Structures are given as structure tokens and as C-alpha cells.
Fold:
Amino acid sequence: MADSTETADRSRRRGLTVVGGNVFALGTVSLVTDISAEMVTAILPVYLVFGLSMSPLAYGMIDGIYTGATAVLRLIGGYLADRVRKPKAVAGIGYAMSALAKLGLLAVGRSASAIGLVIAVDRAGKGLRTAPRDALITLSAPTHALGRAFGVHRAMDSFGAFLGPLVALAVLAAAGQAFDAVLVTSFCIAALGVLILVLFVRDRHDERPPTVVVSPREALELLRAAPVRRLLITACLLGFAVIGDGFVFLLLQRREEISLGWFPLLAVGASLAYLLLAIPMGALADRVGRVPILLGGYTALVAVYLLLFGPLHGWPLPAVVLLLYGFFYAATDGVFMALAGPVLPEHLRTTGIALIQTGQALAYLASSVLFGLAWQLWGPATASRCAAAVAVLAVVATASLLINPSTDTTTNTEVVA
Structure:
């Protein structure tokens, strides 16, 4: 029995060692940055909807801007990182922009349009850094362990998301509910994340073909590859199925009449579930196949939408919804990037990842605005059921696109690996 336990421990250590130090360094940057980001985002929906009395449609537009309106910068960031072969530098600019945006929120006061502009700058930074960061992960770990590598990164990222709202509550309590104190603290933590990136993350471009010069025309050639087109279409379908965290938490708060003071803890609960499940889901995806895990995650999202106005009441409702919501992220976020990485040529990997993420972000922008409009016109219950129906269609379409015996050999490997 002792021998088997020791063997299992060695196996786990090897499983984490194969991920590589660069992935852990990137995970630390994301952990610190997410503490900063979630300090603000955990209280932003309440501030906008209740503090500024925004309509669901107006909130949907700002929430869409938060994720989708700067999607073009994902392409720019991805292309630049491939062109100059310095993904770390491009990612660093993105992290710095998001850090400075925290100070921008201090200057705009209660102006909804100005808040939207600052949020756009913050998300521009995220758009610029995301593809180079994910490309660095794919270049820092072996192909057979990409699910585990993204699982480790997303677990560290979600630990930061878990801590962020708690830090915000602590700062608010210490500062007498002063929102400015949250923003200043958030900026200082974000600046620490940039410093960690500069000091500890290594660029990974030494193994890439040194003679290849990336051109816009060559980047566009990516769309000629059938596996890349399938992944891009899938990303758009799945992006359209997501209404966003803020809407899910607002619907949960309204359904159960949760005190506004406890609202940030909804994000904490979802982040905790994500944190606990990210590494197991990544490892399982490497073992049984990334597509089945991806489909399982979006099936959980359908369940979340239905439960928001389903038969459950009382504490079981938020407990089950937040668990399923965390599972959704754990089974989809890093897993989809692990699925995409090996399909893309190495010298265009950052551009390809950016292309896929841009499609997903633009689809999310449309979904967020349309959900806000549906809520305003038909009410939250009908809007949630429509979102569930759209998500079901997206799952079926994804299965037909990615589980196909006639697909490219690389894609088949990813499905069954």
C-alpha cells in the first residue's frame, strides 16, 4: 500500500513538473492580476445597476464592451507577438494598460459613458495580452500535457479571482466603504503583476523557425486550413452561448433576494469551484479527450441558465449554480485553448489563438447586448430560457463540427487524446 501511495505521489509530481516553470510564472502573474481585476469587477454590476440605476440593456452593452468591444486588439496583439517574436513584451504592455485603467476609474466619477471608456481601455489591455500569454503556455509545455498546463494556469488565475472579492470586502471594511480605496489598492496589486512578468517570465521563441517573417497575408492564410476554420466557427458559436458572469450573478441575486453586501461573494463561490476543478479537468481532458470535456462544460452552462428560474429555492440554488458555473469555466476555458494550440503552426500560433479568441469575444459582445435587450423586453425568466436554448444549439453544433471522423488528423488526435 505504501509503495502504491509513493508511486501515485511521484506520478502527481511528474504531472506538475512537466508543465514547466514558465507556466507557473505566467500563472503567478495571472493570479496577482486577477486579484486586482476581481476587486473591481465583483462590485461593478451592483454599482452600475443599483448605484447608477442602469437598465439591463445598458448594463449588457457595458458588459459586452468589457469583454468583446476591444476584440480587434486581440488580433493586433497576436500578430505583433508573432511578427516581433516577443510575446512577453506584448503581453506586458497589455498588463500595464489594465493596471493604469484602475487609476482611470478614480477620475471619471459616476459618468456611465466615461466608465465605459475606461473599461474599454482595461479590456484593450486584456485583449492585447491574452493571446501572447496563451501562446507562451503552448510553447512552454509539451503537447500531450497542454490540458494540464492550461489547467494549472487557470487554477492559479481563478485563485486570484477567488481572492479578489475578499480583498475588496476587506478594503471596503477598513476604508469605511470607500470605493476609491479599492481602486488604489487594485492598481498597486496590478503593478506588482507587471513586475513579476518582467522579472520571472521568459520569452519562448528560441525553437521557432528564425527565418520565417510573419506577414498579414500569411496570417490570413490560416483561414484556409479546415481545422482552423472549424475552431473559429466553434469559438463564435460558444461565445454566443455565454451571457456573462454579471448577468448570472444579478439573476441569482434577484431570484433569492441576496443582500447587496453579500453580492461579491457570488463571484467568490464560482471562482472557488473553478479553482478546485481546473487542474483535474485539464488532466482529464489530456487523458480522455478535450472535446468531450468542452461539451460537458457547456452542458453545465445550460443547466445554470435553467436553474436560475427552476424548481430549486433557498441556499441549495446558489450552491448548485455556483458549482456548475465553476465547472463550466474549468471544463472550457483552458481546455479550448489546449485544443486549439496543436492545430496552429508554431510561427503563427499567437495570431491563430488571437483569431479564435476574437471570434469568441465578438460573439459574446452580441450575446451580452441581446440578452440585456431580451431581459428588458420579456423579463429575466424568458431571457434565461432563451439563453439556455441558444446554448443547447451551440453544444449540438460544436459536437457536429469537432467530432467528425473525416476531420484533419491533428484534430482527430485532439478529440481522442
Q: What stands out?
A: The chain is about 80% helix and 0% strand. The CA atoms of residues 246 and 313 lie 20 Å apart.
